[in-house]
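Hello again, I could really use a second opinion on something today. I owe you a coffee for this, so here goes:
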Amino acid sequence: MKKRLIGIFSALFILSCSTMVHAYSYSGDIVSGWLSLDVTADYESASLTTPEPLVVDFEFDPAPCGGVVSYTASATLSLNLLGFYTFELELPETGLGSFAAPDLSTLLGDGVNPAVHAGSREITGAFGGYSLTGANLDYDFTFTPEEGSNSSYEIAIDELTLSGGNTSELLSGIVEDLNQSGQVPLPQPMKAPFKIPAAVNGGTFEIRAAAPVPVPAAVWLLGSGLLGIVGIRRKLKV
C-alpha cells in the first residue's frame, strides 16, 4: 500500500510540473559602460557593440520545472550622447513572445570564469508591435564575473548583428517610430546609415514571466479520486 501511495504522489508531482509554471523574473541594474549602435545603409543590418564593457548587477529567480511561458520586458536606460547630452530611454512593458524557460545560470557561467557565447541563429517571432521573419542574429559576447561579487558582471559585446530576412523593414519601422515619438535628441531625423556611440550612466531592466498557469482542476480531481479509491479498498480489507 505504501508503494502505491508513493507512486500516486509521484505521478501527481510529474503532472503538476508539466502543467504548472511559477511566476519568476530576471532583473538587473546597469551601472556603467559604453554602447555603440551601427545601422548600415538601407537598414540592411544593425550591430551593437560595447567599446567599454557594461557593468550589470543581476537578480533572478530559479527557472520553473518546465513548460512554455509568455514573457514581458521593461527597461530604462540613461545615455550620454556626444559627451554632453543626456538621453533617457524608457521601454514600457513589451511582450517578448512565448518560449521555454531559460536557465540564466547557464548564460552567466559558473560565477568564477568568463562565459563566452558566440554563434549564429535564425530568428522568427514577434515582440511588441514588431516582428521578425527569417532574420539572422550573429553574436559574440562574454560575461565576466567581478571579483568579490556574487551578482555583478561585466558584459563585453564584440558582435551582436541582426541582418537578413525582413531586418530592413523592421529597422526602418523602428527608426521612423523613434523619429515620430520626439525622443530622438537630434536636430534632424535619424536616417540610415548612422553610428551612435553613447556612455551608459545607468539603467534597469526586468523580464517577467506571465501570470502562473494553474494546474487543471482535472489533475487534482483525478488525484483525489485515486486516493479515495485507495482508502475505500483499505476499509474493505479491514
